[in-house]
UniProtKB/TrEMBL annotation:
This is Anthranilate phosphoribosyltransferase. The keyword Glycosyltransferase applies. The lineage of its organism: Eukaryota, Viridiplantae, Streptophyta, Embryophyta, Tracheophyta. Keywords: Glycosyltransferase, Transferase. It comes from Acorus gramineus (Dwarf sweet flag). GO terms for molecular function: glycosyltransferase activity; GMP synthase activity. One of its GO terms (cellular component) is cytosol. InterPro entries: Glycosyl_Trfase_fam3_N_dom_sf, Nuc_phospho_transferase.
Length: 588
Protein backbone atom coordinates (compact mmCIF):
# COMPACT_ATOMS: atom_id res chain seq x y z
CA UNK A 1 0.00 0.00 0.00
CA UNK A 2 2.77 2.30 -1.04
CA UNK A 3 0.73 5.37 -1.89
CA UNK A 4 -0.69 5.62 1.62
CA UNK A 5 2.90 5.94 2.80
CA UNK A 6 3.85 8.44 0.13
CA UNK A 7 3.93 11.90 1.68
CA UNK A 8 3.95 13.73 -1.64
CA UNK A 9 1.78 12.08 -4.31
CA UNK A 10 1.62 15.21 -6.45
CA UNK A 11 2.67 18.86 -6.12
CA UNK A 12 -0.82 20.31 -6.11
CA UNK A 13 -1.84 18.00 -3.30
CA UNK A 14 1.04 18.95 -1.04
CA UNK A 15 0.80 22.65 -1.74
CA UNK A 16 -2.34 23.16 0.31
CA UNK A 17 -2.40 20.17 2.63
CA UNK A 18 1.06 20.28 4.08
CA UNK A 19 1.27 23.94 5.05
CA UNK A 20 -0.06 23.91 8.57
CA UNK A 21 -0.47 27.68 8.60
CA UNK A 22 -3.13 27.39 5.92
CA UNK A 23 -4.48 24.05 7.04
CA UNK A 24 -4.27 23.75 10.83
CA UNK A 25 -5.95 20.35 10.88
CA UNK A 26 -3.05 18.74 9.05
CA UNK A 27 0.67 18.92 9.48
CA UNK A 28 3.04 16.69 7.57
CA UNK A 29 6.09 15.34 9.30
CA UNK A 30 8.60 12.63 8.37
CA UNK A 31 7.67 9.04 9.19
CA UNK A 32 10.18 8.77 12.03
CA UNK A 33 8.63 11.78 13.75
CA UNK A 34 4.98 10.72 13.61
CA UNK A 35 3.65 10.09 17.08
CA UNK A 36 2.49 6.68 18.15
CA UNK A 37 -1.07 7.98 18.54
CA UNK A 38 -1.06 9.45 15.05
CA UNK A 39 0.28 6.20 13.60
CA UNK A 40 -2.39 4.22 15.39
CA UNK A 41 -5.13 6.55 14.09
CA UNK A 42 -3.73 6.33 10.59
CA UNK A 43 -3.57 2.54 10.73
CA UNK A 44 -7.22 2.45 11.80
CA UNK A 45 -8.15 4.58 8.81
CA UNK A 46 -5.98 2.46 6.51
CA UNK A 47 -7.77 -0.70 7.67
CA UNK A 48 -11.14 0.91 6.96
CA UNK A 49 -10.13 1.92 3.47
CA UNK A 50 -8.50 -1.46 2.75
CA UNK A 51 -11.72 -3.21 3.70
CA UNK A 52 -13.70 -0.86 1.48
CA UNK A 53 -11.77 -0.91 -1.77
CA UNK A 54 -9.20 -3.07 -3.43
CA UNK A 55 -5.51 -2.29 -3.00
CA UNK A 56 -5.01 -1.15 -6.59
CA UNK A 57 -7.70 1.51 -6.32
CA UNK A 58 -6.13 2.89 -3.16
CA UNK A 59 -2.71 3.09 -4.79
CA UNK A 60 -4.19 5.02 -7.69
CA UNK A 61 -5.73 7.53 -5.28
CA UNK A 62 -2.40 8.54 -3.81
CA UNK A 63 -3.52 9.27 -0.24
CA UNK A 64 -0.68 11.06 1.56
CA UNK A 65 0.80 9.96 4.85
CA UNK A 66 -0.41 12.67 7.20
CA UNK A 67 -0.05 13.40 10.86
CA UNK A 68 -3.61 14.53 11.51
CA UNK A 69 -3.85 16.53 14.71
CA UNK A 70 -6.60 14.97 16.83
CA UNK A 71 -8.84 13.81 13.96
CA UNK A 72 -11.31 12.34 16.44
CA UNK A 73 -12.57 15.79 17.42
CA UNK A 74 -14.36 17.98 14.89
CA UNK A 75 -13.43 21.01 16.98
CA UNK A 76 -9.77 20.56 16.04
CA UNK A 77 -10.66 21.98 12.63
CA UNK A 78 -11.34 25.38 14.18
CA UNK A 79 -8.72 27.83 12.92
CA UNK A 80 -6.16 28.68 15.57
CA UNK A 81 -6.13 32.26 14.23
CA UNK A 82 -9.66 32.92 15.52
CA UNK A 83 -9.73 34.78 18.86
CA UNK A 84 -11.71 32.99 21.57
CA UNK A 85 -14.73 34.60 23.24
CA UNK A 86 -15.06 35.20 26.97
CA UNK A 87 -16.85 32.15 28.34
CA UNK A 88 -18.66 33.89 31.22
CA UNK A 89 -20.39 36.30 28.86
CA UNK A 90 -20.85 33.64 26.17
CA UNK A 91 -22.80 31.44 28.60
CA UNK A 92 -25.05 34.39 29.38
CA UNK A 93 -25.56 35.04 25.66
CA UNK A 94 -26.78 31.46 25.25
CA UNK A 95 -29.64 32.32 27.60
CA UNK A 96 -30.59 35.84 26.53
CA UNK A 97 -29.71 36.06 22.80
CA UNK A 98 -32.66 34.00 21.63
CA UNK A 99 -36.36 34.25 20.87
CA UNK A 100 -39.31 35.73 22.79
CA UNK A 101 -40.32 32.36 24.26
CA UNK A 102 -36.93 30.64 24.49
CA UNK A 103 -35.02 33.36 26.38
CA UNK A 104 -34.13 32.54 30.00
CA UNK A 105 -33.59 35.67 32.13
CA UNK A 106 -30.43 35.68 34.23
CA UNK A 107 -30.57 35.26 37.97
CA UNK A 108 -29.18 38.03 40.14
CA UNK A 109 -25.85 36.37 40.91
CA UNK A 110 -25.26 35.53 37.24
CA UNK A 111 -26.24 39.02 36.10
CA UNK A 112 -23.86 40.67 38.58
CA UNK A 113 -21.03 38.34 37.51
CA UNK A 114 -21.59 39.03 33.80
CA UNK A 115 -21.69 42.82 34.16
CA UNK A 116 -18.69 42.78 36.48
CA UNK A 117 -16.77 40.75 33.89
CA UNK A 118 -17.73 43.22 31.15
CA UNK A 119 -16.72 46.19 33.31
CA UNK A 120 -13.34 44.81 34.29
CA UNK A 121 -12.66 43.63 30.73
CA UNK A 122 -13.37 47.13 29.39
CA UNK A 123 -10.87 48.51 31.92
CA UNK A 124 -8.28 45.86 31.01
CA UNK A 125 -8.37 44.35 34.50
CA UNK A 126 -9.47 40.76 33.82
CA UNK A 127 -7.19 38.18 35.36
CA UNK A 128 -5.67 35.50 33.11
CA UNK A 129 -7.64 32.71 34.81
CA UNK A 130 -10.88 34.56 34.02
CA UNK A 131 -10.42 33.97 30.32
CA UNK A 132 -10.33 36.16 27.27
CA UNK A 133 -11.37 39.79 27.13
CA UNK A 134 -15.00 40.36 26.22
CA UNK A 135 -14.92 41.03 22.48
CA UNK A 136 -16.68 43.83 20.64
CA UNK A 137 -18.93 41.25 18.99
CA UNK A 138 -19.94 39.85 22.38
CA UNK A 139 -20.68 43.32 23.72
CA UNK A 140 -22.85 44.05 20.70
CA UNK A 141 -24.80 40.80 20.90
CA UNK A 142 -25.33 40.92 24.68
CA UNK A 143 -26.48 44.53 24.96
CA UNK A 144 -28.63 44.33 21.80
CA UNK A 145 -30.35 41.29 23.29
CA UNK A 146 -30.97 43.08 26.58
CA UNK A 147 -32.45 46.07 24.73
CA UNK A 148 -34.75 44.00 22.53
CA UNK A 149 -35.98 42.09 25.58
CA UNK A 150 -36.74 45.33 27.39
CA UNK A 151 -38.48 46.90 24.39
CA UNK A 152 -40.53 44.14 22.81
CA UNK A 153 -40.44 40.75 24.57
CA UNK A 154 -43.35 39.36 26.59
CA UNK A 155 -43.23 39.99 30.33
CA UNK A 156 -41.96 36.53 31.26
CA UNK A 157 -38.80 36.92 29.14
CA UNK A 158 -38.11 40.58 29.83
CA UNK A 159 -35.52 41.54 32.43
CA UNK A 160 -35.66 39.70 35.72
CA UNK A 161 -35.50 41.64 38.96
CA UNK A 162 -31.96 40.37 39.40
CA UNK A 163 -30.93 41.68 35.98
CA UNK A 164 -32.54 45.02 36.76
CA UNK A 165 -30.70 45.39 40.06
CA UNK A 166 -27.39 44.39 38.47
CA UNK A 167 -27.84 46.92 35.67
CA UNK A 168 -28.78 49.68 38.12
CA UNK A 169 -25.55 48.97 39.98
CA UNK A 170 -23.20 48.69 37.02
CA UNK A 171 -24.59 51.01 34.35
CA UNK A 172 -23.19 54.25 35.86
CA UNK A 173 -19.77 52.55 35.75
CA UNK A 174 -20.19 50.89 32.35
CA UNK A 175 -21.28 54.07 30.57
CA UNK A 176 -17.87 55.57 31.40
CA UNK A 177 -15.79 52.73 29.88
CA UNK A 178 -17.83 51.19 27.07
CA UNK A 179 -17.40 52.37 23.44
CA UNK A 180 -20.04 54.83 22.25
CA UNK A 181 -21.57 52.31 19.83
CA UNK A 182 -22.13 49.85 22.69
CA UNK A 183 -23.75 52.56 24.85
CA UNK A 184 -26.03 53.22 21.87
CA UNK A 185 -26.96 49.52 21.65
CA UNK A 186 -27.70 49.34 25.38
CA UNK A 187 -29.98 52.38 25.40
CA UNK A 188 -30.68 53.67 21.87
CA UNK A 189 -33.38 56.16 22.85
CA UNK A 190 -32.13 57.01 26.34
CA UNK A 191 -35.25 55.48 27.93
CA UNK A 192 -34.06 52.14 29.34
CA UNK A 193 -31.37 52.98 31.88
CA UNK A 194 -33.04 56.09 33.27
CA UNK A 195 -29.82 58.09 33.71
CA UNK A 196 -30.36 60.85 31.17
CA UNK A 197 -28.10 59.15 28.64
CA UNK A 198 -27.73 61.25 25.48
CA UNK A 199 -25.21 59.03 23.68
CA UNK A 200 -27.85 56.64 22.36
CA UNK A 201 -30.27 59.22 20.95
CA UNK A 202 -27.44 61.23 19.34
CA UNK A 203 -25.35 58.36 17.97
CA UNK A 204 -25.21 58.20 14.16
CA UNK A 205 -22.02 56.26 13.47
CA UNK A 206 -19.11 57.21 11.27
CA UNK A 207 -19.01 56.69 7.54
CA UNK A 208 -21.79 55.85 5.11
CA UNK A 209 -21.90 52.12 5.83
CA UNK A 210 -22.04 52.52 9.60
CA UNK A 211 -24.63 55.28 9.39
CA UNK A 212 -26.91 53.05 7.32
CA UNK A 213 -26.39 50.22 9.81
CA UNK A 214 -27.18 52.43 12.80
CA UNK A 215 -30.40 53.58 11.13
CA UNK A 216 -31.45 49.97 10.56
CA UNK A 217 -30.50 49.02 14.10
CA UNK A 218 -32.84 51.59 15.62
CA UNK A 219 -35.73 49.68 14.07
CA UNK A 220 -34.32 46.25 15.01
CA UNK A 221 -33.62 47.24 18.64
CA UNK A 222 -37.23 48.36 18.99
CA UNK A 223 -38.37 44.89 17.90
CA UNK A 224 -39.23 45.98 14.35
CA UNK A 225 -38.52 44.64 10.89
CA UNK A 226 -36.84 45.86 7.71
CA UNK A 227 -37.54 45.65 4.01
CA UNK A 228 -35.64 43.52 1.50
CA UNK A 229 -33.63 46.44 0.11
CA UNK A 230 -32.68 47.68 3.60
CA UNK A 231 -31.26 44.32 4.69
CA UNK A 232 -29.54 43.71 1.37
CA UNK A 233 -28.00 47.18 1.45
CA UNK A 234 -26.64 46.73 4.97
CA UNK A 235 -25.12 43.34 4.17
CA UNK A 236 -23.43 44.57 1.02
CA UNK A 237 -22.13 47.64 2.85
CA UNK A 238 -20.51 45.84 5.78
CA UNK A 239 -19.26 42.58 4.21
CA UNK A 240 -16.72 41.16 3.87
CA UNK A 241 -15.44 41.99 7.32
CA UNK A 242 -12.09 43.70 7.26
CA UNK A 243 -10.54 47.05 6.70
CA UNK A 244 -11.74 49.84 4.54
CA UNK A 245 -9.59 51.94 2.25
CA UNK A 246 -8.31 54.01 5.17
CA UNK A 247 -6.98 50.90 6.92
CA UNK A 248 -9.51 50.95 9.75
CA UNK A 249 -12.55 48.68 10.07
CA UNK A 250 -15.45 49.98 7.99
CA UNK A 251 -18.04 49.14 10.65
CA UNK A 252 -17.77 48.23 14.33
CA UNK A 253 -18.17 44.51 14.98
CA UNK A 254 -20.41 45.42 17.92
CA UNK A 255 -22.93 46.90 15.50
CA UNK A 256 -22.74 44.00 13.05
CA UNK A 257 -23.23 41.37 15.75
CA UNK A 258 -26.14 43.37 17.19
CA UNK A 259 -27.77 43.48 13.76
CA UNK A 260 -27.39 39.74 13.13
CA UNK A 261 -28.58 38.53 16.52
CA UNK A 262 -31.28 41.19 16.72
CA UNK A 263 -32.90 40.09 13.48
CA UNK A 264 -32.91 36.47 14.63
CA UNK A 265 -34.41 37.40 18.03
CA UNK A 266 -37.19 39.32 16.27
CA UNK A 267 -37.87 36.23 14.08
CA UNK A 268 -37.05 37.25 10.52
CA UNK A 269 -39.78 38.00 8.02
CA UNK A 270 -39.81 36.39 4.59
CA UNK A 271 -38.49 39.63 3.06
CA UNK A 272 -35.57 39.74 5.47
CA UNK A 273 -34.65 36.08 4.92
CA UNK A 274 -34.79 36.54 1.14
CA UNK A 275 -32.30 39.40 1.45
CA UNK A 276 -29.88 37.21 3.42
CA UNK A 277 -30.34 34.40 0.92
CA UNK A 278 -29.88 36.40 -2.28
CA UNK A 279 -27.60 39.31 -1.32
CA UNK A 280 -24.38 37.71 -2.55
CA UNK A 281 -25.65 35.58 -5.43
CA UNK A 282 -23.52 37.57 -7.87
CA UNK A 283 -20.38 37.76 -5.70
CA UNK A 284 -18.46 35.52 -8.15
CA UNK A 285 -20.59 36.27 -11.19
CA UNK A 286 -23.30 34.08 -12.70
CA UNK A 287 -23.16 30.43 -11.60
CA UNK A 288 -21.96 27.93 -14.20
CA UNK A 289 -24.54 25.59 -15.74
CA UNK A 290 -23.77 21.86 -15.59
CA UNK A 291 -24.84 19.65 -18.47
CA UNK A 292 -26.75 17.21 -16.25
CA UNK A 293 -30.36 16.10 -16.41
CA UNK A 294 -31.02 16.37 -12.67
CA UNK A 295 -29.25 18.19 -9.87
CA UNK A 296 -30.06 18.18 -6.14
CA UNK A 297 -28.57 20.90 -3.94
CA UNK A 298 -28.03 19.61 -0.40
CA UNK A 299 -28.19 22.28 2.31
CA UNK A 300 -26.91 20.69 5.50
CA UNK A 301 -26.54 22.94 8.57
CA UNK A 302 -23.07 24.43 8.19
CA UNK A 303 -22.17 23.79 11.83
CA UNK A 304 -22.36 20.03 11.39
CA UNK A 305 -23.23 17.07 13.63
CA UNK A 306 -21.92 16.52 17.13
CA UNK A 307 -23.63 13.25 18.08
CA UNK A 308 -24.92 11.10 15.24
CA UNK A 309 -23.63 9.58 11.99
CA UNK A 310 -23.65 12.11 9.15
CA UNK A 311 -24.71 10.37 5.95
CA UNK A 312 -25.24 12.98 3.23
CA UNK A 313 -21.80 12.67 1.61
CA UNK A 314 -22.31 8.93 1.17
CA UNK A 315 -25.93 9.36 0.05
CA UNK A 316 -24.71 11.69 -2.70
CA UNK A 317 -22.30 9.04 -4.00
CA UNK A 318 -25.21 6.57 -4.11
CA UNK A 319 -27.64 8.86 -5.93
CA UNK A 320 -25.00 9.88 -8.46
CA UNK A 321 -24.84 6.24 -9.63
CA UNK A 322 -28.22 6.48 -11.34
CA UNK A 323 -28.07 10.01 -12.71
CA UNK A 324 -29.20 12.07 -9.72
CA UNK A 325 -26.29 14.50 -9.52
CA UNK A 326 -25.72 16.11 -6.12
CA UNK A 327 -24.23 19.45 -5.13
CA UNK A 328 -23.08 19.75 -1.50
CA UNK A 329 -21.91 22.95 0.17
CA UNK A 330 -20.86 24.03 3.65
CA UNK A 331 -17.80 24.97 5.67
CA UNK A 332 -14.88 23.18 7.24
CA UNK A 333 -15.85 24.39 10.73
CA UNK A 334 -18.71 26.59 11.81
CA UNK A 335 -20.08 27.75 15.17
CA UNK A 336 -22.03 27.35 17.31
CA UNK A 337 -21.85 23.53 17.28
CA UNK A 338 -18.51 23.13 15.53
CA UNK A 339 -19.54 19.61 14.55
CA UNK A 340 -18.53 17.14 11.85
CA UNK A 341 -18.94 18.53 8.32
CA UNK A 342 -18.65 17.12 4.82
CA UNK A 343 -15.59 19.28 4.27
CA UNK A 344 -13.80 17.74 7.25
CA UNK A 345 -14.48 14.23 5.98
CA UNK A 346 -13.41 14.99 2.42
CA UNK A 347 -10.29 16.73 3.66
CA UNK A 348 -9.39 13.84 5.93
CA UNK A 349 -9.78 11.39 3.05
CA UNK A 350 -7.48 13.50 0.90
CA UNK A 351 -9.89 15.34 -1.41
CA UNK A 352 -9.30 18.86 -2.65
CA UNK A 353 -11.76 21.06 -0.72
CA UNK A 354 -10.82 24.32 -2.47
CA UNK A 355 -12.93 23.88 -5.59
CA UNK A 356 -14.48 26.78 -7.46
CA UNK A 357 -18.05 26.54 -8.81
CA UNK A 358 -16.61 25.99 -12.30
CA UNK A 359 -14.49 23.08 -11.05
CA UNK A 360 -17.50 21.65 -9.23
CA UNK A 361 -19.43 21.80 -12.51
CA UNK A 362 -16.74 19.64 -14.12
CA UNK A 363 -17.08 16.98 -11.41
CA UNK A 364 -20.87 17.00 -11.70
CA UNK A 365 -20.54 16.31 -15.42
CA UNK A 366 -17.90 13.59 -14.94
CA UNK A 367 -19.52 10.22 -15.71
CA UNK A 368 -17.47 8.53 -13.01
CA UNK A 369 -18.27 11.06 -10.27
CA UNK A 370 -21.58 12.95 -10.54
CA UNK A 371 -21.44 14.91 -7.29
CA UNK A 372 -19.37 17.78 -5.90
CA UNK A 373 -18.70 19.85 -2.80
CA UNK A 374 -18.10 23.61 -2.60
CA UNK A 375 -16.90 25.43 0.50
CA UNK A 376 -18.45 28.73 1.50
CA UNK A 377 -14.85 29.94 1.65
CA UNK A 378 -14.67 29.70 -2.16
CA UNK A 379 -18.27 30.47 -3.13
CA UNK A 380 -19.25 33.26 -0.72
CA UNK A 381 -16.08 34.80 0.73
CA UNK A 382 -18.06 37.74 2.10
CA UNK A 383 -20.24 35.49 4.24
CA UNK A 384 -17.30 33.27 5.14
CA UNK A 385 -15.60 36.31 6.69
CA UNK A 386 -18.23 36.19 9.45
CA UNK A 387 -17.15 32.86 10.97
CA UNK A 388 -15.19 34.38 13.84
CA UNK A 389 -17.93 36.87 14.64
CA UNK A 390 -20.56 34.11 14.55
CA UNK A 391 -18.71 32.26 17.28
CA UNK A 392 -18.84 35.38 19.45
CA UNK A 393 -22.57 36.00 19.06
CA UNK A 394 -23.16 32.42 20.27
CA UNK A 395 -26.60 31.80 18.74
CA UNK A 396 -27.34 31.18 15.08
CA UNK A 397 -27.91 34.30 12.93
CA UNK A 398 -30.38 34.49 10.01
CA UNK A 399 -27.56 33.28 7.73
CA UNK A 400 -27.75 29.85 9.38
CA UNK A 401 -31.11 29.47 7.63
CA UNK A 402 -30.47 31.25 4.33
CA UNK A 403 -27.03 29.76 3.57
CA UNK A 404 -28.61 26.32 3.27
CA UNK A 405 -30.67 27.40 0.23
CA UNK A 406 -27.99 28.13 -2.36
CA UNK A 407 -27.31 27.23 -6.00
CA UNK A 408 -23.60 27.61 -6.65
CA UNK A 409 -23.96 25.58 -9.87
CA UNK A 410 -27.09 25.41 -12.01
CA UNK A 411 -28.27 22.52 -14.18
CA UNK A 412 -29.44 22.15 -17.72
CA UNK A 413 -32.22 19.86 -16.48
CA UNK A 414 -34.32 19.62 -13.33
CA UNK A 415 -33.15 21.11 -10.04
CA UNK A 416 -34.15 20.38 -6.45
CA UNK A 417 -33.10 21.61 -3.01
CA UNK A 418 -33.09 19.51 0.16
CA UNK A 419 -32.37 20.92 3.59
CA UNK A 420 -33.00 20.27 7.27
CA UNK A 421 -34.60 22.27 10.08
CA UNK A 422 -35.16 21.99 13.81
CA UNK A 423 -37.33 24.86 15.09
CA UNK A 424 -40.95 24.60 14.02
CA UNK A 425 -41.98 27.38 11.67
CA UNK A 426 -38.70 27.51 9.78
CA UNK A 427 -39.81 24.71 7.46
CA UNK A 428 -42.17 27.15 5.74
CA UNK A 429 -39.47 29.82 5.51
CA UNK A 430 -37.07 27.36 3.90
CA UNK A 431 -39.67 26.21 1.37
CA UNK A 432 -40.42 29.86 0.57
CA UNK A 433 -36.73 30.42 -0.21
CA UNK A 434 -36.66 27.29 -2.39
CA UNK A 435 -39.63 28.54 -4.39
CA UNK A 436 -37.85 31.86 -4.77
CA UNK A 437 -34.95 29.88 -6.28
CA UNK A 438 -37.41 28.52 -8.90
CA UNK A 439 -36.38 24.90 -8.46
CA UNK A 440 -38.61 22.11 -9.68
CA UNK A 441 -38.76 20.36 -6.31
CA UNK A 442 -37.99 21.25 -2.71
CA UNK A 443 -37.84 19.20 0.49
CA UNK A 444 -37.30 20.09 4.14
CA UNK A 445 -36.60 17.34 6.66
CA UNK A 446 -36.62 17.43 10.43
CA UNK A 447 -33.67 15.09 10.77
CA UNK A 448 -31.62 14.27 13.82
CA UNK A 449 -29.72 17.28 15.21
CA UNK A 450 -31.68 19.56 12.89
CA UNK A 451 -29.86 18.09 9.90
CA UNK A 452 -31.53 16.73 6.78
CA UNK A 453 -30.88 13.01 7.33
CA UNK A 454 -33.77 10.79 8.33
CA UNK A 455 -33.25 8.09 10.93
CA UNK A 456 -34.26 4.43 11.03
CA UNK A 457 -34.85 4.71 14.79
CA UNK A 458 -38.37 4.22 16.12
CA UNK A 459 -39.95 7.28 17.68
CA UNK A 460 -39.79 7.25 21.45
CA UNK A 461 -43.11 7.58 23.31
CA UNK A 462 -41.34 10.24 25.39
CA UNK A 463 -40.37 12.30 22.33
CA UNK A 464 -40.73 16.04 22.67
CA UNK A 465 -43.83 17.81 21.48
CA UNK A 466 -44.03 19.41 18.07
CA UNK A 467 -43.07 17.99 14.71
CA UNK A 468 -41.38 14.59 15.07
CA UNK A 469 -38.00 13.55 13.69
CA UNK A 470 -38.41 12.33 10.06
CA UNK A 471 -41.13 14.90 9.37
CA UNK A 472 -40.89 15.90 5.70
CA UNK A 473 -42.58 18.72 3.83
CA UNK A 474 -42.09 20.00 0.33
CA UNK A 475 -43.25 20.43 -3.23
CA UNK A 476 -42.50 18.75 -6.54
CA UNK A 477 -43.37 19.06 -10.20
CA UNK A 478 -44.19 16.08 -12.37
CA UNK A 479 -41.88 14.64 -15.00
CA UNK A 480 -41.46 16.03 -17.59
CA UNK A 481 -41.44 19.58 -16.25
CA UNK A 482 -40.15 22.87 -17.55
CA UNK A 483 -39.03 26.11 -15.96
CA UNK A 484 -42.42 27.60 -16.68
CA UNK A 485 -44.11 24.77 -14.77
CA UNK A 486 -42.10 25.68 -11.69
CA UNK A 487 -43.15 29.31 -11.96
CA UNK A 488 -46.63 28.44 -10.76
CA UNK A 489 -48.43 25.91 -12.93
CA UNK A 490 -47.75 22.36 -11.84
CA UNK A 491 -46.30 22.06 -8.38
CA UNK A 492 -47.86 19.79 -5.80
CA UNK A 493 -47.29 20.11 -2.06
CA UNK A 494 -46.84 17.23 0.36
CA UNK A 495 -46.05 16.49 4.00
CA UNK A 496 -45.57 13.22 5.86
CA UNK A 497 -43.62 11.48 8.61
CA UNK A 498 -41.31 8.80 7.25
CA UNK A 499 -41.25 5.53 9.20
CA UNK A 500 -38.54 3.16 8.00
CA UNK A 501 -40.59 0.14 9.16
CA UNK A 502 -43.21 0.92 6.52
CA UNK A 503 -40.60 0.09 3.88
CA UNK A 504 -39.18 -3.07 5.39
CA UNK A 505 -36.24 -1.48 7.21
CA UNK A 506 -35.88 -2.72 10.77
CA UNK A 507 -35.64 0.01 13.42
CA UNK A 508 -32.11 0.64 14.70
CA UNK A 509 -30.48 3.37 16.72
CA UNK A 510 -28.47 5.82 14.67
CA UNK A 511 -24.73 5.15 15.17
CA UNK A 512 -23.06 7.70 17.42
CA UNK A 513 -19.93 9.46 16.27
CA UNK A 514 -19.64 12.09 19.03
CA UNK A 515 -17.59 14.56 16.98
CA UNK A 516 -15.23 11.89 15.62
CA UNK A 517 -14.54 12.59 11.95
CA UNK A 518 -12.67 9.31 11.64
CA UNK A 519 -15.54 7.28 13.11
CA UNK A 520 -18.00 8.91 10.70
CA UNK A 521 -15.76 8.05 7.75
CA UNK A 522 -15.31 4.47 8.94
CA UNK A 523 -19.07 3.97 9.19
CA UNK A 524 -19.72 5.48 5.78
CA UNK A 525 -16.99 3.61 3.93
CA UNK A 526 -17.94 0.30 5.53
CA UNK A 527 -21.55 0.84 4.47
CA UNK A 528 -20.57 1.73 0.89
CA UNK A 529 -18.42 -1.43 0.88
CA UNK A 530 -21.64 -3.38 1.48
CA UNK A 531 -21.45 -3.96 5.23
CA UNK A 532 -25.07 -4.24 6.36
CA UNK A 533 -26.16 -2.45 9.51
CA UNK A 534 -27.57 0.85 10.80
CA UNK A 535 -25.27 3.08 8.70
CA UNK A 536 -26.06 1.09 5.53
CA UNK A 537 -29.81 1.29 6.21
CA UNK A 538 -29.63 5.01 6.93
CA UNK A 539 -27.86 5.71 3.62
CA UNK A 540 -30.37 3.59 1.68
CA UNK A 541 -33.34 5.25 3.40
CA UNK A 542 -32.12 8.78 2.74
CA UNK A 543 -31.28 8.09 -0.89
CA UNK A 544 -34.50 6.27 -1.76
CA UNK A 545 -36.92 8.49 0.16
CA UNK A 546 -35.41 11.68 -1.28
CA UNK A 547 -35.61 10.25 -4.80
CA UNK A 548 -39.26 9.41 -4.28
CA UNK A 549 -40.34 12.63 -2.59
CA UNK A 550 -38.57 14.86 -5.13
CA UNK A 551 -40.37 13.04 -7.96
CA UNK A 552 -37.18 11.70 -9.54
CA UNK A 553 -37.42 9.51 -12.61
CA UNK A 554 -37.54 5.79 -11.74
CA UNK A 555 -38.52 6.47 -8.12
CA UNK A 556 -42.28 6.66 -8.48
CA UNK A 557 -42.56 3.63 -6.18
CA UNK A 558 -40.83 3.95 -2.81
CA UNK A 559 -39.73 0.30 -2.55
CA UNK A 560 -38.29 0.42 -6.05
CA UNK A 561 -36.38 3.58 -5.14
CA UNK A 562 -34.91 1.91 -2.04
CA UNK A 563 -33.89 -1.17 -4.05
CA UNK A 564 -32.16 1.07 -6.60
CA UNK A 565 -30.13 2.66 -3.80
CA UNK A 566 -29.18 -0.77 -2.44
CA UNK A 567 -28.05 -1.87 -5.89
CA UNK A 568 -25.81 1.21 -6.19
CA UNK A 569 -24.08 0.21 -2.96
CA UNK A 570 -23.96 -3.57 -3.38
CA UNK A 571 -22.54 -3.27 -6.89
CA UNK A 572 -19.61 -1.21 -5.57
CA UNK A 573 -20.52 1.71 -7.82
CA UNK A 574 -21.21 4.18 -5.01
CA UNK A 575 -17.88 3.54 -3.32
CA UNK A 576 -16.12 3.80 -6.65
CA UNK A 577 -17.65 7.23 -7.23
CA UNK A 578 -16.48 8.47 -3.85
CA UNK A 579 -12.95 7.27 -4.57
CA UNK A 580 -13.10 8.82 -8.04
CA UNK A 581 -14.17 12.13 -6.48
CA UNK A 582 -11.14 12.21 -4.21
CA UNK A 583 -8.83 11.52 -7.14
CA UNK A 584 -10.50 13.78 -9.70
CA UNK A 585 -10.80 16.73 -7.31
CA UNK A 586 -7.03 17.14 -7.75
CA UNK A 587 -6.96 16.67 -11.52
CA UNK A 588 -9.49 19.23 -12.70
Amino acid sequence: MNSLLNPNPNPNFSSHLFRSSQNPSYAYCPNNQISFAARRTRRGFDRTVRSAVDWTTIEELGFPDLDVRNPSISGSYRSSTLPSPNQTVLEAQAKVCTGPTQTKPLGEDRAFKVLDTIFRSAKGELKEEEGEEVSKAQLGAFFAAMTIRANSFPEETQWSEGERRAMETFWPLLVQVLPREVVFLADPEGTIMGTGNLVGPQFVGSGTAEMRLVGALREVLAGGHLGFEEVEGVLRDVLPLGSGESGSARVSESLISAFLIGQRMNRETDRELKAYCLAFDDELGSPPVADVGSLTHYGEPYDGNTRFFKSTLFVSAVRACYGESCMLHGAEWMPPKGGITEEQMLKFMGANTHLSPLQAKTLLEDEGVGFAYISQREAHPSLYSLIGLREHIKKRPPLATSEKVQQFVRARGREAIVTGFYHEGYEESLLMLMRRRSVHSGLVVKGEEGALSMTTKSRSPNASKGLPVNYCSGFRSPIPATATDVDGISRENFSLVVDAKDYGIEPTDTPRTDRSVLKNIELGLAALAGQKGPAYDRIVLNAGVVDHLLGCSGAEDMLTALDRARDAIDSGKALSRLMNYIKMSHKI
